[in-house]
Each structure stands twice: as C-alpha cells, then as structure tokens.
C-alpha cells in the first residue's frame, strides 16, 4: 500500500489576519506557519493504515524552501519520505496540476488531502486531482477504512451521511472523524532529520485565477446587553427582525 | 454564451440554497444579457422542476436516468460539463454545499475553467476583468479573485445571496447525456438521513452550545430552543472532541463555516478559531455568565447570565412570541 498525503503550510489558527500593500498581500509578519490541521488528520490515518510494515506514506507539498519545517514535522509524525515540488502555490489548480504530474510518473494506491486548507479554504485540490488523474474522488470524508482492493469512506451530506466503497486508486479529502492528529515524539523528531526529502522542480502551467485584493469583515457595533430573555426576544423580533 | 446553474436536490426537493444559487445565476445572466438554463439530476417531480422558473431559469434540463438517481460526483460532473457544452454556457453556478464542493473542481477541470469557490457577492465585470469575492482564511477575511479563463465555475456560499422571485416559467426538457461506466467506480452502500433536522450549512438560525453547557445531558435545552426557532444546532470544537455532540455540528476555523441570519452562542467563550467560522452571521447573540468573555466583543445582543437560568426563560419567551404571531 503506497499512500500519498498532500500537505499545505498555513498560518497558525490563532493568527489575526491582516494585509499589507493596500490590502493586496497577506501580512506574514510574525505569523507562525503550521501543518494544515486537516492534513494532520489525513496523515495520522495514513500512518495508522500502513502501521506495522503494511505500506509507505509519502507526503508532498507544493511550496518554496520556507515550507521545509512543516514537511519535517510531517516526517516527525511518521511519514516515510517527502517530496517538495518547488514553487509558490499560486492557486488550487496550480497545486493540483503539479501533484497530478508527479503522480502520473509515480503512482499511488491512495491519495489523501485535507478537506480544505484553512487559508484558502477551497476544498478544491482533491476534486481537481481526481479529475486530472481520472480517478474517483470524495471531497469531504468523515471515516476511512481499507481492505485489499478498495476503501470504504463515510461522507457527510446535508442532514445525514453516506457510505461509499471505492476501488483503489482514489482521492479523498479528510475531515474530523477520520483520525486523531498524532503528536510527534522525540524519536520521530530525531529520525525526521535523516528521512528522505526530495525536491523536484515545478512544471510550467498557465494560471487561471489571481487574488486581486483582500477585505476583512466589517467591524460590528457595540453589543446591546439586556438582562432578561423577554427583552431579548422583543429586540430580535422588532429591531433585528430575525425571528 | 449563457449561464448554467446546477439545481441540487435533497431527496427530490430543492433546498433554499438551490433557489439562492438560481437567483444568483439569474443576476449573472442579466449582467451579461444572456439566458439561464438550470440542470437537475435525479428524481425530481415536474412541479418541483417548474419552481426553478420562478427564480429565473428559462429552461430546465432534467436528467432522470436511473443510474444517476444518487449523487456520484465523477458522473454528475461529467453530466453538468456536457450540459454546459450543449448549452454553450461559459459560466456554471452551483451551491457551495457538500456535494457542490465535490463537483465544482471536477467541472472546472473538464471545462478548463477557473473555479471561484464560496462566492459571497455577485461578480464584478469591468475593464475586461471578471472578479468574484469569496471567503478566505476560514471566514476571517474575504479575497477578491480575478478569473482569467474563458469559462468559469462559481459556487455560492449559502445564505449569502437573497432569493429573487421573477415569476417566470421554465421550459422543461429531458437531457440524456452519455456517461462512462468508469465514472461510477464509487458505489453508494448506504444513505442515512435525519430528515427532521434543519441542515446546519443552510440554516437561517443556528443555536450553538459550548463547554459552558457542562455536559451532553443538558443539550435538551439547546435542542428545544432550536426547535421552537426552527433552527439548526451546532457546537464548539471541545464539545465535539469530547463526544458530547457529533463532529458534523462543530463550527469554526476547523469545522463548518456558517452564515445564518441569527447565531445564538450559549456558553461559548469566543476563541478566535470559533469566531472564524461564524463571523459572517448577520446577527450574533451571546449568552455567557462571564461578562469578560471575548464573544461579547463581536456580539450584537447579549445576556450576561447562567445558561441554565436563561435558556428556559428564552424558550418560554420565544414560544410566547410564536403563539401570538
Ligand atoms: C488548531 C486549533 C483549531 C481549533 N478550531 C476550533 C474550531 O473550529 N471551533 C471551535 O469552536 N474551537 C476551535 N478551537 C478551540 C478554541 O481555541 C477554543 O478552545 C474553543 O472554541 C473553546 O470552546 P468553548 O467556548 O466551548 O469552551 P471554553 O473556552 O471553555 O468556554 C466556555 C464558556 O462557557 C461559559 N460558561 C461556563 N459555565 C456557564 C454557565 N453556567 N452559564 C453561562 N456561561 C457559562 C464560560 O464563561 C466560558 O466563556 C481550535 C483550537 C486549535 C488549537
Ligand atoms: N501547496 C500545497 N501543497 C500540497 N498540498 C496542498 C497544497 N495546498 C493544498 N493542498 C492540499 O489540498 C487540500 C485542500 O486544499 P484547498 O483546495 O486549498 O482547500 C489541503 O488540505 C491539502 O491536503
């Protein structure tokens, strides 16, 4: 079993998001970058599924050299090896195209992503990889089990859930429920330094979207504090008109 | 050139988020002086299909082939892309639902179209530029994205665009595209629906509980309030991590992002990761016994008090309001 886990390098969840250059650039000043929380879930499940010599887990990231700390973290958690595709990730299409080109030459039985990156939140890479590689894909899964020839996944649907079986190879975007993230131990951290991390050059591709600018949500006015529930309901009904 | 909207149904019925996407697609068609075609896949009755006309679809392509009754994103994406080609549509709109997230990227690749996911406003088209505003950084910000490809796919955030009834009627046609058997590799084994519950991503009102609720045994209060308001229930991350509530209810940066008209936070402190997922709610109500809880800083209305005293009173007050209406 060869599993590929796609990992992205994102601002820590406590980051206060601000912009520079007339709101055209994300302000990375003082921002700590982490392994995307959903990718941690995907990685944890990949490690569980291959535990005890049942396979290998390769992590891949499309990024410049600044993402290596995050890649080493994934190796410390337990990935076997890593591939960094050397380019700034322009958009989901760019990322998916790079990974698909790599996978065409290096096939895997199972490709896992996170359900979304917490910076761009596209939920797009999994579906795009599926389409580019002509493989089945499920964008948001809550559970993943495997047998010899196929995987069984559970996906959320509006007001319920659906269970699917899918023959290998396929692509799935992992969300909570799939696994508990793993914390690297000392041995893992030491070992990560010597695990293979290959850098491959990106292939040229025409991009089709550009972020022009960013906006932050409009600040809210002062809170109206009330002391009793009747008053609250009255305000919600007559003033806010939401009930 | 025209606009195609994928009208997603749940169990044969269109949801409000579908009609929002139809209204949104209609406005885009009007911006471009062109027509709007809807495509519906699955078992949807003729009178339901006709309702799409009321939100602006001139034509409805109805795909009712038995093979396509249940959602398989690979096959559905192929059908929708075929329809876009058949209609000469250069803009495909869909709802950013669970299924929409599986479809939009696949359709985008098939049509060599850039994908704007989670749009929150109509596109702006000026000086030959086509830009769309979408959520980014888990609701902490918005990004304005320029789509430079000739074809475009846009998925709309639920509750971000209001319904517009046009009073129009749609011409309904059957559409029978070829689908490859290899598009059906994923096989549905089971579908479990809890139909009596309001679905969280679409909900207009959300009642959400945090650790201040003390334990799962107290959730009857949250559920009763949700019930009288016709709301969906949600929770903070530690609540679902502890197994008090299912993961599917967890909202925030690493959970579901919601944008209801009214978000009621009960016993939730208002950590930055929680606020990320709810900041686009139109009205926020906070009930917390700690007047210093950070959530009050982003709230519109608040009660400083004990949830176990406030919730029963609030339930009674809402019941009274509903009875008098
Ligand atoms: C990587 C990462 C991702 C995260 N993602 C998310 C996310 O997506 N969503 C999320 O919610 N959190 C997320 N968190 C966790 C977040 O940081 C907070 O820990 C969490 O939101 C706190 O949940 P809470 O408000 O329910 O609990 P607490 O912070 O414990 O707050 C409980 C509140 O209840 C009040 N209270 C207690 N008793 C009563 C009473 N009787 N009556 C009234 N009020 C009472 C208290 O005053 C307090 O304000 C994430 C954290 C990390 C590190
Ligand atoms: N730069 C990247 N390199 C590798 N994988 C990525 C990258 N960006 C996103 N991904 C993967 O794609 C998933 C979904 O990302 P997105 O489509 O941006 O929401 C993430 O959870 C990652 O698994």
Give the topology, please.
The complex is a heterodimer of chains A (243) and B (325).
Chain A: E1 2-6, E2 9-11, E3 19-20, E4 25-26, E5 33-35, H1 37-50, E6 56-63, H2 68-77, E7 81-86, H3 92-105, E8 110-114, H4 125-132, E9 137-146, E10 150-157, E11 160-167, E12 170-174, H5 186-192, E13 197-201, E14 209-215, E15 224-226, H6 229-238
Parallel strand pairs in A: 1-6, 1-8, 6-7, 7-13, 8-12, 9-12
Antiparallel strand pairs in A: 2-5, 3-4, 9-10, 10-11
Helix pairs in contact in A: 2-5, 3-4
Chain B: E1 2-6, E2 9-10, E3 13-14, H1 16-31, E4 36-41, H2 46-54, E5 59-63, H3 73-87, E6 89-95, H4 98-110, E7 114-119, E8 124-126, E9 129-136, E10 141-147, E11 152-156, E12 171-174, E13 187-193, E14 205-209, H5 219-229, E15 232-235, H6 237-241, E16 262-266, H7 272-276, E17 283-288, E18 301-304, H8 307-324
Parallel strand pairs in B: 1-4, 1-6, 4-5, 5-12, 6-11, 7-11, 14-15, 14-16, 16-17, 17-18
Antiparallel strand pairs in B: 2-3, 8-9, 9-10
The structure holds flavin-adenine dinucleotide (FAD) and adenosine monophosphate.
Flavin-adenine dinucleotide binds at residues 210-212, 236-239, 250, 252-255, 267-269, 271, 273-274, 277, 288-290, 293, 306-308 of chain B.
